[in-house]
């Protein structure tokens, strides 16, 4: 099954992050808080051999070229071409960047081609019969032989260790491919659980956070016209005017009571004047005149007060009508903003449904598709014996040539090392066994030349695979800066803000980097920018509504209702009130001057009652005049420019409140939402499966094979030198003769020695006729008996005389 990972992987990752754009907001409200599903901590452990794997992976990683921003852009272009055309400028440039890997592969090719060619040249020009051993040994080389054997043992040990590592690596690699479905199932399960959790949490989070925010904004918009009208009423003294109207009945009742008491006092005084004609008549006349003055002043106040009250009622009624009209106008102007808020609320529901559909589609086409494809590949490999064939092929391709080389080399090493145990008084002779060992060594060298290149071939292909795998794993999973993910446009996504329709560019590398630092999902997904954009859009809408509201109030003419028919009535009432207070004071002075007893005289009682009622009415009227003056001043100062200022200020305060709501929600989301570390852990688990579970044994295959192939070179040199040593030894001697020289005295042209049996007999070894060639006699003797004279020589040399009767 062909799996288009080029599209599936970015789609899966971007969709996984896209579904949590607002999902992290769930933790602002406690009722939405919950525990995310546990992410499996996957670590594919291979024991101590993993150290070799990791070391090889580090080598492959260090060989990777550093990528600049321009290099990443070029690589993105090659990626977009689906790697189909490597002749493009970008592809060629990127291939040139792999200089180190190309050089290593070139060396491997040179090794593969050059090894058999070198073997042909070696055997052709140096004569494989003795492998270049043209002369016999002249001096002892026991220490040189010891050094060769020691180096050979070390080389073989390294090769054998490399073969064991290779065998384990192939085994681990085969097991990884056979059981890859288990970690893949685990990772896919984690992805599904995480996506499902965040998707399910999305509804609660939006309803508890964004919906509340929209409700705040909607409420503010709905009460804004009423607040503007209320503020306007306060500015024009609307409520003070209504207080005047509300108290007008009490004031009128008080004024009426004063008039009644004055009339009663006048009646009593007039009756007293007509009955009693005593000297106090003049005082009574003065009191009647004062009462008439008070009555006139009260009537004047009452008349003007009634006029003001009627006009004030008319004005307030007109203001109510105008304000209702203006509020209706402002509501009409703001209804568009209110409708937008409502539509945003509706879009949230649509957005949730869209997200759920997108998640289902991603899970079906992304995770399910990839999962199904991997399982199908896994099944095909196991059912059709492909895996077994691949594993056995890897075993045979390296272990078979290595065994053909190692076994004869080990045999030579053991046998030659045994010669180091012989005494130094035993001569170095080339027996048939020695010749056989030399031929075995030459055979091992020949096998290296013939089949050694196969090991390097496997190592080269393995290195190419491991290097390519590390080229993917390092930038995707091991690079903390996430430069590749940040630089690839494929790994970026435009998220539409459901509140204002604007788009925010979201990059998967930046998101994963934030999650790696254990920040909240809202921070990782640029939630601050998400809220800032909406705040700016809201402020813009509010500013536009403010201008419309100001224009709307300008269309309402308040000028004709502001005056109270002139200030003359208020001024007249103020003058009359002053006069009333003076008249009441004069009346009180006249009463005190008369000396009448207030309790005994009815006239005094009524006059006192007039004074009290009049002063009470004056006090009530004084409070009314203060309120009327306030209202009059407020109305006089009302203008269109003033209206514009206070409407603008109210809209500014409203915008500040909305901004504060958004900022508060943003701060809560940034600090209290779900920390998105599980998203990064899930991503790392994907890397663990690809780069650890499968990648580490792959690194072990090429590194162990390459180590063995490189050790073949010193193996060739050491075996060649040992074979030379063996072929340069002297031919074999007569094994039945053992001569133990005891003296160095010439006896008539003979050499005297004990034979092997008697130990006392003199044996004539060399006679003058030289029937036995001196070169065929190899004396064996103890080290303390070695001689170096003109007669014969010590260990490793021919024993012969210089008798004139005998030829050498």
UniProtKB/TrEMBL annotation:
Q: Which domain of life is it from?
A: Eukaryota
Report one GO cellular component: membrane
Q: Where is the signal peptide?
A: 1-24
Keywords tagged on the record: Glycoprotein, Membrane, Signal, Transmembrane, Transmembrane helix
* Membrane topology label: Multi-pass membrane protein
> Membrane-spanning residues where?
101-125, 145-168, 394-422, 434-467, 700-719
Would the keyword Signal turn up in this protein's UniProt record?
A: yes
Give the UniProt subcellular location, in the record's own words. Membrane
Q: Does the keyword Transit peptide apply?
A: no
Indicate the family of this protein. Answer: Belongs to the prominin family.
Stated name of the protein: Prominin-like protein
Q: Which organism is it from?
A: Parascaris univalens
């Amino acid at each position: 099954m062909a799996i288009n990972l080029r599209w599936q992987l970015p789609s899966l990752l971007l969709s996984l992050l896209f579904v949590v754009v607002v999902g992290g907001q769930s933790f602002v409200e406690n009722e939405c808080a919950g525990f995310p599903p546990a992410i499996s901590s996957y670590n594919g452990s291979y024991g101590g051999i993993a150290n070799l794997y990791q070391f090889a992976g580090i080598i492959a990683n260090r060989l990777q070229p550093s990528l600049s921003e321009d290099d990443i852009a070029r690589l993105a272009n090659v990626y977009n071409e689906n790697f189909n055309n490597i002749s493009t400028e970008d592809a060629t440039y990127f291939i040139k960047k792999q200089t180190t890997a190309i050089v290593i592969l070139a060396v491997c090719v040179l090794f593969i081609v050059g090894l058999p060619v070198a073997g042909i040249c070696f055997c052709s020009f140096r004569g494989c019969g003795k492998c270049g051993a043209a002369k016999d040994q002249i001096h002892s080389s026991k220490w040189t032989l010891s050094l060769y054997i020691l180096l050979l043992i070390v080389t073989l040990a390294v090769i054998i260790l490399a073969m064991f590592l290779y065998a384990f690596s192939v085994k681990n690699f085969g097991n990884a491919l056979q059981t890859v479905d288990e970690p893949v199932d685990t990772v896919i399960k984690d992805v599904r659980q995480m996506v499902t959790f965040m998707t399910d949490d999305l509804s609660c989070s939006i309803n508890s956070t964004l919906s509340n925010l929209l409700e705040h904004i909607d409420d503010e918009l709905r009460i804004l016209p009423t607040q503007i009208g209320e503020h306007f009423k306060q500015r024009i003294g609307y409520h003070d005017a209504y207080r005047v109207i509300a108290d007008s009945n009490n004031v009128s009742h008080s004024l009426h009571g004063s008039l009644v008491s004055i009339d009663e006092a006048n009646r009593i005084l007039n009756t007293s004047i007509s009955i009693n004609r005593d000297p106090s008549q003049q005082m009574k006349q003065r009191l009647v005149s004062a009462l008439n003055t008070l009555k006139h002043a009260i009537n004047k106040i009452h008349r003007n007060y009634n006029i003001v009250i009627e006009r004030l009622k008319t004005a307030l009624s007109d203001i109510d009508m105008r304000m209702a009209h203006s509020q209706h106008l402002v509501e009409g102007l703001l209804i568009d903003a209110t409708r937008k808020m409502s539509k945003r609320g509706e879009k949230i529901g649509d957005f949730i449904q869209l997200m759920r559909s997108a998640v289902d589609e991603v899970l079906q086409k992304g995770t399910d598709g990839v999962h199904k494809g991997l399982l199908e590949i896994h099944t095909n490999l196991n059912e059709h014996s492909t895996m077994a064939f691949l594993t056995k092929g890897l075993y045979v391709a390296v272990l078979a040539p290595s065994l053909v080389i190692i076994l004869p080399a080990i045999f030579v090493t053991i046998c030659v090392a045994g010669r180091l145990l012989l005494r130094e008084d035993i001569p170095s002779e080339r027996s048939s066994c020695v010749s056989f060992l030399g031929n075995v060594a030459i055979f091992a060298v020949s096998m290296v030349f013939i089949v050694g290149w196969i090991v390097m071939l496997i190592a080269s292909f393995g290195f190419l695979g491991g290097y390519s795998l590390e080229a993917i794993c390092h930038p995707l999973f091991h690079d903390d800066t996430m430069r590749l993910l940040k630089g690839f446009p494929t790994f970026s996504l435009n998220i539409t803000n459901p509140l204002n329709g604007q788009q925010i560019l979201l990059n998967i590398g930046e998101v994963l980097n934030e999650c790696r630092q254990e920040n909240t999902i809202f921070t990782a997904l640029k939630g601050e920018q998400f809220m800032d954009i909406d705040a700016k859009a809201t402020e813009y809408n509010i500013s536009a509504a403010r201008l419309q509201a100001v224009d709307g109030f300008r269309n309402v003419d308040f000028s004709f209702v502001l005056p109270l028919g002139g200030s003359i009535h208020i001024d007249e009432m103020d003058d009359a009130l002053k006069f009333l207070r003076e008249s009441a004071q004069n009346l009180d002075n006249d009463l005190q001057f008369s000396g009448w007893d207030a309790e005994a005289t009815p006239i005094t009682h009524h006059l006192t009652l007039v004074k009290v009622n009049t002063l009470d009415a004056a006090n009530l009227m004084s409070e009314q005049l203060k309120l009327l003056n306030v209202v009059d001043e407020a109305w006089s100062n009302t203008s269109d420019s003033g209206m514009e200022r206070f409407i603008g200020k109210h809209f500014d305060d409203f915008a500040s409140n909305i901004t504060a709501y958004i900022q508060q929600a943003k701060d809560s989301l940034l600090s209290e939402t779900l920390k998105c570390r599980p998203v990064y852990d899930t991503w790392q688990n994907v890397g663990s499966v690809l780069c650890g579970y499968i990648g580490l044994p792959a690194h072990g295959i090429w590194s162990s094979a390459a180590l063995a192939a490189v050790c073949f070179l010193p193996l060739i040199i050491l075996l060649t030198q040992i074979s030379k040593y063996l072929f340069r030894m002297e031919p074999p001697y007569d094994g039945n003769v053992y001569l133990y020289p005891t003296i160095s005295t010439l006896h008539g042209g003979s050499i005297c020695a004990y034979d092997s049996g008697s130990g006392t007999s003199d044996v004539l070894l060399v006679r003058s006729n030289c029937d036995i060639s001196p070169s065929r006699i190899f004396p064996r003797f103890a080290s303390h008996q070695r001689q170096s004279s003109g007669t014969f020589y010590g260990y490793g040399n021919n024993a012969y005389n210089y008798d004139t009767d005998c030829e050498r």
